[in-house]
Amino acid sequence: MQSVRLIFRSAAILLLPFLSCLAQQEETTVNITETDLIETTGIVHTKWVFTYNPPRAYDRVKRLYPNLYVLFRDYGPERSRLEINKDTLKIESDDAKRMITFTADVLGHVVSRRNRWQIPLQPNEQLLTQDGNKIITALQTSQPGNKISVICTSVLPKDAQNIRVDQQAHMITYTLPKMPAAGPIEQPQVDVSIRSKKRIMSALYKIYGDPEAGDGAYWVSKAIFMNTGKSPIYNVKITSRLGDIAESNIAEPYSEIAAGGSVVDCYYPTIQARAAQFKTMNPLQLFVRYEYEDASGKVYFGETTRRVEMLGINQFEFSNLNDEDRSDSWFDYFNNAPLLSAYVTKLDDVVKQFAGYVSTASGGADANISKEGAVRWLEAAYNMQLMNNVSYQTPSGFVTKDRSSGQDIKYPRDVLRDKAGTCVDLAITYAALAEAVGLRAYLMLVPGHAFAVIRLPGGDLMPVENTGLGGGNQRMTFQQAAEVGLKNLQKYYGDGVYYLVDVQHQLSLGRVPNPELPAVGNDFLEKSGIRRLEDMKFSRGPSQGNPAQGVAFRLVHDHFGNNLSAYCIGRLTVSGDSAAFIAESATDGRMDRFQFRKSEIVEVKKNRMPMGQFGRVMLPAFHVRFTNGANLNFALVNEQGAGLLADTVILALQPGH
C-alpha cells in the first residue's frame, strides 16, 4: 500500500527548483508539516503545508506552475495507488509567507487487513513521539542540492485500541471495538468503479508488475470499492487478470470495510516476457472480479471488464493523462518522459561492443576516471557514429483516439543497424554508450527536441547536440555539437520548460526496467556495416595528425544548402589517393577538419553558388559526391577571396592524378 507521504514527497520534489543537480547551486530545503485526521471508516482528512529555504525557491515554483493544480495532478490519482476525493481537494498559496497548502480527503490509505487497521510508514520514517491516539513521525529525504523534511502528525480515531508502531514492518496498526448489529442485517450496498490504463507499453512490460516502481504509479488497473450501505462488509476479495498475457493476481482480502468506508486495490500484473515480441498494438481484455460477505457470512460477488491496448516494443506513449485531466501545458504531454530510460540499453552486447570500439579508438581512455579521459572518449563515440554515417531522421508516430502523443522509438542497436535515428533515438544511443563505460547520462527533453547530457568525472556537464550527426554535408564536428548542446541547455534551463531524465537513477532507484531484446551474434555490428575508426577511408570528424604533403588549394566549404550563407575557408591538400581539408576561418565558428580518399568519390561536378552574405555574387563552384552518400560543396578562391575556375582542383581529384 502506498503512503500519503509518498505522493506528497514526490510532489515536493517537483516543487523544488528544477535541475539543481545540473549546476552548483545553493542547497534548497522544503519543510513539510503533515496532519492526518483518520476517521473510523479509514478516510483520511490530510493537510500539507510546504515552506521553502531559501524563499526564492517558492518564487520559481510559482513561475513554473501558475496553476498549482497541474503540479499536484501529476502525483494525484492517475499516478498513485490512492484515490483523492476531488471535491475536497484545495491547493492554496500564500505569496507573503511563500507557503503552499494542500488539503484533501484520501481514500485507501488506511485499511483493515488481518483484523487490524493499518497505516503504512516509509522505510526511513522514524517515530518521534506517541501520546495516546496521536503519533508524530519524521521523514527526511534528499537528492543533490535538495532536502525534504516531513513532520507528520497522525490522529487516530478516538476509540482506537491496541495501537502499535512497528518500525520493522513500517506500519502503524490498531483495532476498533466491534459495534453490535442494530436490527436485522440489510443487504450490502456497494459502489465499485475501475480505473484502468488505456494503453501500456510492451517495452516496459516488467514495470507494471512492480508496485515499488514510480512509487506505485504503474498499476494497470485500480478498483475503488466503496461501502455505501449502513453496515460493514467483510472478507472483501478483488481479483484481476490481463488477458492471457498475465496470471490472475492473488488478492489479500480486506477484513472489513466500514459503512461509508472504501478500499483502493491496484493490479500489478506479472506480464509474460513474450510481450516484448509485440511489434504493433495488441488489444487485451482486463477482467476484474470481486466478492464480499455481510455480517451473516452470505457471499456476494460481481465482475467487470475493460479493454487495454498493449503497444508494440518500439512504440512509446509520452503521456498517460486522460483528456479530461490534461491541460495545454507542454508538461502534460510528456509526463512519461522518465520511462524513456527503458530504451537506454547499456547492458546490450551490441552497445558494449560498440563502446569497446570507441575505447580502442580513444586510446583506451579511462572515461569514468578523469575529465580529460571522458571528453576524449565522448568525442571518439560521437566521431565513430559520424564516420559510420549514422544520421538524423524525422520521427514517425502513431495516432490514438485521444490527444495522447506517441512516437516510434529505436533501441541503440536499431540505430546502429539502420544508421539513422530521430533526435530522441540518437540521444538514447549516446546515453547508452556513455552509461556502458560508467559515465552518468541524462536525457534532456524540451519542446520539439531531445539531446543527451553527460556528467563528467568531477561533476561538470557536457551536453551534446546529437542531431549534429546530420546527414550528407549537414553535420557538425564534436566541438560544434558540444557548443550547440551547451547553448540549448542554458536556454531551456533558463526557460524552465524541460524534463531532465536521470537515466542511472531511473534504471536503479526508479526501477525502470530494460526489456529483454532478442540475442544477436557477435557479428551484428559487422553485418550492419559498422566500421572501426581505424578502418575508415572517409571521415567527417576531425582528422588525425597533419595531412600528407601534396598539392594545396584554397577553398570555401559550404555549410548550409549550397548557398554560402555560412561557410569556412581553408586548405584542401591532395596527395596520391588521399585528400585532407583544414579550415582556417569560418563565418559561423564551425572550423571543419576532415579527410577522404579519391577512390571513394562517385562524382565531381561543376556548379555555381550564390554568396549568401554578399547579395547576388555567384562563385564558380563544384560538389563532390561519395559512395556513402555524403556530398560536399566547395568554391575555389584566391588569397583575396575572389572566385576562380575550379578545373585544376577537379582534375586533381580524379583517380590517377
Textual characterization of the structure:
The protein is of the alpha+beta class and 657 residues long. Helix content is 17%, strand content 36%. The protein is built from 11 helices and 35 strands. It has a 7-stranded mixed beta sheet. A 7-stranded antiparallel beta sheet has the order 32-31-30-29-35-34-33. Strands 13-19-18-15-16 form a 5-stranded mixed beta sheet, with no helix packed on it. A hairpin with a 5-residue loop joins strand 1 (28-38) and strand 2 (44-53). The longest helix is centred in the C-terminal third of the chain and has 18 residues, at 478-495. The chain is elongated and about 110 Å long.
Spans of at least 5 consecutive residues whose pLDDT stays below 50 are: 8-24, 537-548
Sheet-strand content, in percent, reads 35-45%
Give the beta-strand count: 35
Q: Total helix count?
A: 11
Rg, Cα atoms, Å = 31 Å
Separation of termini? 77 Å
Structural category is: alpha+beta
If you average the pLDDT, what whole number results? 85
Task: Identify the strand order in the major beta sheet.
Answer: 3-4-2-1-9-8-7
* Helical content band: 10-25%
Largest sheet: 7 strands, mixed
Which shape, going by the Cα principal axes? elongated
**Quaternary structure type:** single chain
Features:
about 650 residues, seven-stranded antiparallel beta sheet, alpha+beta
Describe the structure concisely for a colleague:
With 657 residues, the protein is of the alpha+beta class. Helices cover 17% and strands 36% of the residues.
